[in-house]
Amino acid sequence: MGRMHSRGKGISSSALPYKRTPPTWVKTAAAEVEEMITKAAKKGQMPSQIGVVLRDQHGIPLVKSVTGSKILRILKAHGLAPEIPEDLYFLIKKAVAIRKHLERNRKDKDSKFRLILVESRIHRLARYYKRTKKLPPTWK
């Protein structure tokens, strides 16, 4: 499947391991991992950042193989899940940055065009999240 607003095909990716059991080198218990996740979420980290920290600093490659549930599910169970989904949040952040840039550089036609593309991605994602009930129907 190709990219939405460019020519890239995006076929290169890492494959998940077939075995769903935790690797032998992971000695951390599921309760400890959940505690680490909730502690990081209380500090204000996003689910993807939590996963990177667990992988790089604590040697936990996949949270689901250790705990049995994904990071976002654990956060929802503890009431710490972000209000809007992470990908939508970062697209909105990007659109705000482009708008700020356009205030200073009014003649930047390329940025104006890129802003249109980013905003169309935001609307498309928002429509999907409203349909799957992850966002309220009145969200704008």
Any chance you could write out the topology, listing elements then pairs?
Blueprint: H1 30-42, H2 47-58, H3 63-67, H4 71-77, H5 86-104, H6 109-131
Key traits:
140 residues, mainly alpha, Helix Hairpins, 6 helices
Question: What is the compact description of this entry?
Answer:
Helix content is 56%, strand content 0%. It has helices at 30-42, 47-58, 63-67, 71-77, 86-104, 109-131. The two termini are 28 Å apart.
Summarize the structure in words.
The chain has six helices and no strands. The mean pLDDT is 89. Helix 1 packs across helix 2 and helix 5 runs antiparallel to helix 6 (109-131). The longest helix is centred in the last third of the chain and has 23 residues, at 109-131. It has 140 residues and is mostly helical. Among the domains are: 30-77; 86-131, Orthogonal Bundle (Helix Hairpins). It is elongated and about 55 Å long. The protein has helices at residues 30-42, 47-58, 63-67, 71-77, 86-104, 109-131.
